[in-house]
């Protein structure tokens, strides 16, 4: 890693005073460029070596030059990869340029602490911005369910939790006050329907559940394919609003609402998550299993799940092992900023032991020998790209799930980077291969509405049950 340091400029002598402490000092904005440098140098809250360009004006300058240089490099990259081998022989020139450009721009999220496409989870969206979804508030997790890992005195529960429901014409939620006969009739009519609970990716720091977010390509496609009757996309709290277990508290609240208030049978619910959302889906399934207060969901749909944050939290900086596929993925993995991200995710639980918790890092190497760690989790579909940086930790999760007899199907997208389903300009064939659903069609070619309870042979991908393909 190239270390970036900012030298302290010459300053006029100042009267001695109390040494600055973290969080201390005036909140007044610096009045000059020199004041900015001085405050960043003196106050650890203002300057972090892991993110040297996290504050203005350095942030704007760095981001501008990063984007400009990427644009200027595009023709050079195009010439180079027209003459010399590309990172993957199957890649087109446009795919190669997309990865190079995105990886260079994504560096801003690490060293400049740039968060993109986020929303305030406490605010309601403008109804005029919703063309495909409807927005609902879900009550916070009730006291009787605040047990286990979600019961954290340092993280206050959010009330309420925002949810975007796909499609826009989804029926209104049922309540306990509904007439029992009407509820039973509605359940019979909708007996075949699956309900998805979607958690977006973004490293717990970026993106949103709003339908205009890049990650909304996933619930949009699932609804249009009629694989789900409706999908509830959760606007969970990012680490800028609350550390762990804030996001898990919000996810549990929405799941409990589906089961207890809207009377959706648990086996009709499928948890869907990409990247960090896959991490959250795994944590929710584990919490439901460990606490035993709500019925287990019908399945997990994990797309390039981030399943080992402990990788970014080594015991010493020198023990950091770079993730594979550096040249073939758009994800950046600079050690110091990634460690800082995990620090913020952990909140006050910043211990080497807690980061290896199965709720945080289910694929941690320290958990690899714990047989039965994943036992009784619902049947799971995992998709990953063979060119993505999370490949090794996802493979470790796959091994552990198979060892613990979790019904599992895996799709390996050849030469695909991280989370290819949200990349608008990637090879459409890769996406189509992931979305294929042979097992959801009967002999007449009609979609089968739902997954019957206890039938582990019903799968989402185009593979026989339990088989791992694409290797």
Description:
This protein has 471 residues and is an alpha/beta fold. The protein is 29% helix and 10% strand. It has an eight-stranded mixed beta sheet, with helices on both faces. Helix 8 links the parallel strand 6 and strand 7. The N terminus and C terminus are likely disordered.
Q: How many β-strands, per DSSP?
A: 8
Percent strand equals: 5-15%
User: Which percent bin holds the helix content?
Assistant: 25-40%
Strands of the largest sheet, in order across it? 1-2-4-3-5-6-7-8
| Major beta sheet summary | 8 strands, mixed
Mean pLDDT: 80
Give the topology string: H per helix, E per strand. Answer: HHHEEHEHEHEHEHEHEH
Secondary structure blueprint with pairings:
Elements: H1 33-42, H2 58-83, H3 93-111, E1 134-138, E2 161-166, H4 180-189, E3 195-199, H5 217-224, E4 230-235, H6 246-261, E5 269-274, H7 276-291, E6 299-303, H8 335-346, E7 380-385, H9 391-403, E8 408-413, H10 428-435
Parallel strand pairs: 3-4, 3-5, 5-6, 6-7, 7-8
Antiparallel strand pairs: 1-2, 2-4
Helix pairs in contact: 2-3, 6-7
Features:
alpha/beta, disordered C terminus, 10 helices, 8 strands, about 475 residues, 8-stranded mixed β-sheet
Task: Produce a short descriptive summary.
With 471 residues, this protein is of the alpha/beta class. It has helices at residues 33-42, 58-83, 93-111, 180-189, 217-224, 246-261, 276-291, 335-346, 391-403, 428-435; strands spanning 134-138, 161-166, 195-199, 230-235, 269-274, 299-303, 380-385, 408-413.
């Amino acid at each position: 890693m190239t270390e970036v340091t900012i030298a302290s400029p010459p300053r006029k002598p100042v009267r001695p005073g109390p040494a600055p402490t973290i969080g201390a000092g005036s909140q007044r904005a610096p009045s000059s460029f020199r004041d900015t440098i001085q405050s960043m140098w003196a106050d650890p809250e203002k300057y972090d070596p892991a993110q040297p360009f996290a504050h203005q004006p350095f942030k704007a300058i760095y981001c501008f030059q990063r984007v400009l240089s990427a644009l200027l490099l595009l023709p050079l990259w195009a010439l180079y990869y027209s003459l010399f081998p590309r990172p993957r022989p199957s890649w087109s020139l446009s795919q190669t340029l997309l990865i190079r450009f995105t990886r260079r721009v994504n560096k801003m999220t690490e060293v400049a602490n740039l968060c993109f496409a986020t929303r305030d989870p406490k605010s309601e969206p403008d109804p005029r911005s919703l063309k495909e979804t409807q927005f609902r508030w879900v009550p916070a997790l009730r006291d009787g369910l605040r047990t286990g890992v979600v019961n954290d005195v340092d993280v206050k529960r959010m009330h309420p939790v925002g949810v975007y429901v796909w499609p826009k014409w989804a029926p209104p939620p049922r309540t306990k006050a509904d007439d029992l006969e009407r509820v039973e009739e509605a359940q019979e009519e909708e007996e075949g329907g699956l309900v998805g609970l979607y958690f977006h990716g973004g490293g717990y720091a970026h993106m949103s559940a709003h339908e205009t977010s890049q990650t909304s390509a996933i619930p949009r496609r699932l609804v249009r394919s009629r694989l789900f009757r409706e999908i509830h996309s959760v606007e969970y709290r990012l680490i800028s609003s609350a550390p762990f277990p804030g996001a898990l508290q919000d996810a549990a609240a929405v799941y409990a609402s589906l089961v207890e208030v809207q009377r959706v049978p648990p086996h009709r619910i499928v948890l869907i998550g990409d990247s960090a959302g896959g991490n959250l889906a795994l944590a929710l399934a584990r919490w439901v299993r460990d606490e035993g207060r709500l019925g287990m969901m019908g399945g997990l749909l994990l797309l390039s799940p981030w399943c080992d944050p402990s990788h970014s939290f080594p015991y010493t900086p020198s023990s950091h092992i770079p993730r594979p596929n550096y040249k073939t993925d758009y994800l950046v993995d600079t050690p110091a900023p990634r460690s800082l991200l995990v620090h913020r995710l952990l909140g006050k639980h910043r211990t080497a032991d807690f980061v290896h918790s199965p709720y945080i890092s289910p694929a941690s190497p320290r958990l690899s020998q714990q047989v039965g760690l994943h036992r009784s989790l619902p049947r799971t579909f995992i998709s990953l790209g063979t060119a993505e940086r999370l490949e090794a930790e996802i493979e470790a999760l796959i091994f552990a799930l198979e060892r613990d007899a979790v019904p599992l199907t895996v799709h390996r997208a050849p030469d695909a980077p991280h989370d290819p389903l949200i990349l608008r300009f990637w090879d459409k064939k890769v996406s189509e291969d992931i979305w294929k659903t042979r097992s959801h069609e009967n002999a007449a070619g009609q979609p089968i509405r739902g997954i019957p309870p206890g039938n582990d042979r019903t799968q989402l991908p185009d593979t026989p049950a339990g088989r791992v393909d694409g290797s």
